[in-house]
Write a structure and sequence with these properties.
There is one protein chain. The protein is α+β, with helices and mostly antiparallel strands. It has a five-stranded antiparallel sheet. Strands 1, 2, 4 and 5 form a four-stranded antiparallel sheet that branches. It is globular, with a radius of gyration of 17 Å. 28% of the residues lie in helices and 26% in strands. The protein binds 2-amino-4-trifluoromethylsulfanyl-butyric acid (MF3) and cobalt (II) ion.
């Protein structure tokens, strides 16, 4: 069931999004060689709580942290750990959500740790661009297939592959709502977008093959071939005027 949001609810979601975005930026600024992913998670948790919000991920299906931090060939859902120390050349995908006055924001970004290879930088650039291509498709009358197609077309033309098993999603009073928003698709197909819908668009793009596996911890998703993976996400409202990104600074 798709839950439409009123303009009053959208303004609350804008605040949840701003807190989520500020938390993500704080996390990104902390990315440097020698820092553990656990330290970054702690910073984020404290920040979200200091804003009177609740980390959306903490305790979700038993998830043990406030962020997902996925390094290099990890795609998503990496669990922050004291033993994971970032090093120069890593690419670090950080996913953060905050719940404020009952509504969630959800966003993610892949940060370079120090200097990274040009191959890695090109993957980050393409994945970020594909997110914004997809956001451009968010307007009433367009369909979920138009959004997914925009991602797929952009990254596959550059030789990258789209993870299929995980998708974007509706966002609202629950972090995961309908509809599912795949990062692949056929133009003109799928659920029709209408004003008041809010969706998280989150391309997960691999340098090598699209196949993934889940580690023994039950959470961490990695590429099967060990190739690098990037993840960028914004929460976006569908409005009569077009897309409004909710996960932006205030
Ligand atoms: N933010 C992720 C998403 O976009 C969800 C994280 S899963 C959790 O779907 F369990 F860790 F919260
Ligand atoms: Co999400």
């Amino acid at each position: 069931m798709i839950v439409l949001k009123t303009s009053r609810e959208l303004s609350v979601m804008r605040k949840a999004g701003a807190i989520s975005q500020a938390a993500l930026r704080l996390a990104g600024e902390a990315v440097e060689p020698g820092v553990s992913t656990w330290e970054i998670d702690r910073l984020v948790k404290r920040y979200i709580q200091s804003m009177g919000a609740v980390p959306s991920f903490l305790g979700y299906d038993g998830y043990p942290a406030s962020t997902c931090i996925s390094v290099n060939h990890e795609v998503i859902h990496g669990i922050p750990k004291k033993s994971v120390i970032l090093k120069k050349g890593d690419i670090v995908s950080i996913d953060v959500g905050a719940c404020y006055e009952g509504f969630h924001g959800d966003n993610a970004w892949t940060f370079p740790c120090g200097e990274i290879s040009s191959e890695a930088q090109a993957l980050l650039d393409a994945t970020e661009q594909s997110l914004f291509k997809a956001i451009e498709m968010v307007r009433p009358g367009n369909r979920v297939g138009d959004v997914g197609h925009a991602v797929q077309e952009y990254v596959e033309a550059r030789g990258y592959s789209v993870v299929r098993e995980f998708c974007g999603h509706g966002v609202g009073a629950k972090m995961h709502e309908d509809p599912s928003v795949p990062n692949y698709g056929t133009p003109g197909r799928g659920v029709r977008l209408t004003a008041g819908m809010v969706i998280a668009i989150e391309p997960m793009i691999n340098l090598g093959r699209r196949d993934i596996e889940v580690k023994a911890d039950g959470w961490t998703v990695t590429t099967k071939d060990g190739s690098l993976s990037a993840h960028f996400e914004h929460t976006v409202a569908v409005t009569p005027k077009g897309p409004v990104i909710l996960t932006l600074p205030e």
